[in-house]
Design a protein that fits this description.
mainly alpha, Na+/H+ antiporter like fold, 13 helices, 76% helix
Length: 308
């Protein structure tokens, strides 16, 4: 219980610190954001992924659960497309932002620490497997492709997207971790990796705060953000429909790790805002969905913490 509350408090405080710091830093803190992101992506996170995954116990539910996660996200993405185009009748850039916000969850910086705090360190490996085998490929290949097709900016070549996926340091770390013998992952380093999961939180969400502060200055985001019909629809699909679909598939076919179900309910990924910037999608929908979904997940996590 205490762990979940602490994780939520650190996330909220770090986002707030970033928002407050953004107008006071040179170039809005963009250089600091790049430096922090590089350290997390290329040093800290690969270390965590390798050593935690090296101790992962592989079962039929682990592997088939990845397939079921793709099925659930495929269905919810199709629903999102219909809602955006037929019901809400959004523009192409707004539809792109809407669908990506539903598809991509924050399974790394929110999902990992909440999994560890709520379910215990034994589930961290499964949460990492979901993040690297489901969310990362969907972001690099599918979400980027949607942005390229639906946005106003020029599309990136498909070959570049595939190369980016293959060079993803997190995916490489997971593959190496699965292949590594136990001798290369001593308990001490596994313990260090599990601690670093929580150490990433303030740095990662300080960067999120800087990004949201910039969105606010550009008029794409206010606090609290407007809860428009598109944003409310994103929240329902991402936070309720997606995890319920996976839960139903798990009950009907094969039980998946609890960490998968929790990861399926994570808030919209911050990378939604990145794609909106890169490809000219609707930044207001992207930023508002990220802000609202993150706040809701943190509040619910704290409210449910006495039951954990």
């Amino acid at each position: 219980m205490t762990g979940v509350v602490l994780v939520a408090a650190v996330i909220a405080a770090s986002i707030g610190a970033g928002i407050v710091a953004e107008p006071r830093l040179a170039d809005g803190g963009r250089d600091i954001s790049r430096r922090i992101t590089r350290v997390l992506l290329w040093v800290v996170a690969p270390f965590i992924y390798f050593f935690v995954v090296a101790h992962l116990e592989l079962t039929a539910g682990v592997g088939l659960g990845i397939v079921l996660a793709y099925v659930a996200l495929g269905v919810v993405t199709a629903i999102a497309w219909v809602v955006a185009t037929r019901w809400l009748r959004l523009s192409r850039p707004a539809t792109g932002a809407f669908v990506i916000a539903v598809l991509i969850g924050n399974t790394g910086y929110v999902g990992l620490p909440l999994t560890g705090a709520a379910l215990g360190s034994g589930q961290l490996g499964y949460a990492i497997a979901y993040d690297s085998a489901v969310n990362a490929p969907l972001f690099v290949v599918v979400a980027m492709s949607i942005g390229a097709v639906m946005g106003s900016e020029r599309a990136a070549p498909r070959r570049d997207l595939l190369i980016a996926l293959l060079r993803n340091p997190l995916l490489i770390a997971v593959v190496l971790g699965l292949l590594a013998p136990d001798a290369l992952a001593p308990d001490l380093l596994v313990d260090v990796a599990q601690v670093l999961v929580y150490g990433m939180v303030p740095l990662a969400f300080f960067v999120v705060g800087l990004s949201l502060g910039a969105e606010s200055e550009e008029g794409a985001l206010t606090f609290p953000p407007a809860l428009t019909a598109p944003v409310a629809a994103v929240l329902g699909l991402r936070l309720a429909v997606a995890p319920l679909l996976l839960l139903g598939l798990s009950a009907a076919i094969i039980a998946v790790p609890d960490a998968y179900l929790l990861q399926a309910a994570m808030p919209c990924g911050v990378n939604t805002v990145l794609i909106a910037h890169l490809y000219g999608l609707d930044q207001r929908i992207a930023a508002s969905a990220v802000a609202w979904s993150t706040m809701i997940v943190l509040v619910v996590a704290v409210a449910l913490s006495p039951l954990l």
